[in-house]
Amino acid sequence: MSAETDFPTEPDEPDHKSDHRFDQADATSAIVSAWDRAENAAAYARFCAASDYYRSVSRALVGAAQLTQGERVCDLGCGTGETLLAITQVLGATAQVVAIDPALAMIRQAQQVSWPEGIEFVRGTSRQLSSLRGNHGFDAVLCSSAAWLHPHREALLREVFSSLAPHGRLALSIPSEFVGESAHLTEPSAQRFLSLLSSLRTELGLWPAQESLPSVDSLSSFTLSSWIDQLSSLGFARVSVVVHPFVMPIRDWAEHLAIPAVLDGLLPEASDVQRRQFVLQLTQRCAQDEQAARPWHLIVAWRS
After folding, report:
1. Could you tell me the residue ranges of all domains in the chain?
2. pLDDT of residue 29
């Protein structure tokens, strides 16, 4: 039976012995607040319905995770349900999935779909995994396009590891530029689009005219090797990496940047008027018939 469990959204009581714990709550709360709006969830769902960007990687990630009938699965950072749909397409009507997301607006959007009886929606984060793992743990935890947003990666991976059953696995999808693999951003079509972003920001007064677009290297939060090393150090016995190639129309790239939470990250200093102008000009002036590579890295780690 589909269900929703509300967890407190307020930070834990301050623990003066652990500033790191309090900082983690603050950082996580800031990220969640950007996504936990009804208009954002609706915009995200519309984008997913119109573009293959998330649908394609969700299917690829489910394939990489090698799910089989009868397994108990967690969809961590389930959003509006794109990866959950790919999971249920493989596991069928008997799927047993705990779908977790900290943003209630995203969960409510996902719940507008009719799901199999064994799907449970939980409002929370990876910190709730220990209470949701059950007696035997999850056979698989999937986290599509969410883990790289987490402000404290080591804590996330440790919590996932502890929630897995023996021989369970964690499957992540991460935009390739956020593991330091950004060669696709130097291709001509991508460079033209990135130059347009830079021009629009200058025209709208969002940074000094002499300032240029940040380098592609600055987009990398972590290197691929650091992900692999940390997974291994936490006890995962085997880690595999696959690149999921994806090419999207430039117009879809522009529409993706217009999702409110994405736009918040792109233009944190902009006024509402500037953001509306940015989106309007971007959609009108981008080369809509062009395409650009937008690959994903799929990382699967197995517990021994």
Report:
1. 4-178+221-248+294-303
2. 67
Residues 6+ apart with CB under 8 A from 274: 204, 205, 206, 267
Q: How many angstroms separate the CA atoms of 12 and 267, rounded?
A: 30
For the segment 266-281, the average pLDDT, to the nearest whole number, is 93
Residue with tokens 């209470």: 131
Q: What is the 3-state secondary structure (H, E, C) of the chain?
A: CCCEECCCCCCCCCCCCCHHHHHHHHHHHHHHHHHCCHHHHHHHHHHHHHCCHHHHHHHHHHHHHCCCCCCEEEEECCCCCHHHHHHHHHHHHHCEEEEEECCHHHHHHHCCCCCCCCEEEEECCHHHHHHHCCCCCEEEEEEECCHHHCCCHHHHHHHHHHHEEEEEEEEEEEEHHHHCCCHHHHCHHHHHHHHHHHHHHHHCCCCCCCCCCCCHHHHCCCCHHHHHHHHHHCCEEEEEEEEECCEEEHHHHHHHHCCHHHHHHHCCCCCHHHHHHHHHHHHHHCCCCCEEECCEEEEEEEEC
Cα angle value 145/287/297 (rounded, 5°): 20
- Print burial letters for 20-47: b (CB count within 10 Å at least 16), e (below 16): eeeebbeebeebbebbbbeebbbbbbeb
User: Class of 4-178+221-248+294-303 per CATH?
Assistant: alpha beta
The Cα 205–Cα 223 span in angstroms is 33
Q: pLDDT by residue (tens digit) across 134-145?
A: 999 999 999 999
The pTM of the whole model exceeds 0.90: no
Burial (Cβ within 10 Å: 0-12, 13-18, ≥19) of residue 88: buried
Q: Which residue is it, tokens 């300032």?
A: 211
Residue 137 token pair: 């743990």
Tokens, residue 174: 């991460």
Listed residue (143, 148, 142, 139) closest to 167, CA to CA: 139
